[in-house]
Amino acid sequence: MRQRCFELLEQSARTSAAKLKYFRLAYGAAGGFGEQVSIDEPKAVIETLAADAKRVQLRWQVAAPTLSKSAAKVMLNLAHIGLDALVRGGTLDIGVEERDDVTEIVVRATGPKIAFDPTIGDALGGRLDPAELSGRTAPAHLLSLIAERSGGQIQTHAEGDALLLGATLPHVD
Prior knowledge:
There is one protein chain. A hairpin with a 2-residue loop joins strand 6 and strand 7. The termini are far apart. The radius of gyration is 16 Å and the shape is globular. The protein is α+β, with helices and mostly antiparallel strands. The protein has a single domain (about 1-170), classed as 2-Layer Sandwich (Heat Shock Protein 90), CATH 3.30.565. The protein contains 5 helices and 7 strands; from the N terminus they run H-E-H-E-E-H-E-E-H-H-E-E.
């Protein structure tokens, strides 16, 4: 019994540390003073959050060793929204492709009973009145502002057992 208590405390500490790192990367300075963030940091955070979500398989298609801070924030938040949608488990696919002038981010959550609040989709698309923002929609609204500021966009599509979240972020000089 005592050993099990220590295991639970250790798991709780790991989860708390991952959430703290998530908030730092997703909303804070994100990896220091440089313009680029190593993909290893956000990837490790998402892997820890997915492991805590239970019954979620995580698949990566990210070749770039670094991302801009804006792209890292968008990827982290879209992945978190995707994880939240997988209430009964499933698969979370994360893809990032960097081309000459744009970063494309795609997060696909598939599983039984996808739970996606349409107001989050409205906030991601910049269609939610700021007066209607809540604790659940504010991060999505922030992503909308990040995309808008760089001349990019965020799109969502929820249907049946799948949720697709995508962002295009032009590189800003």
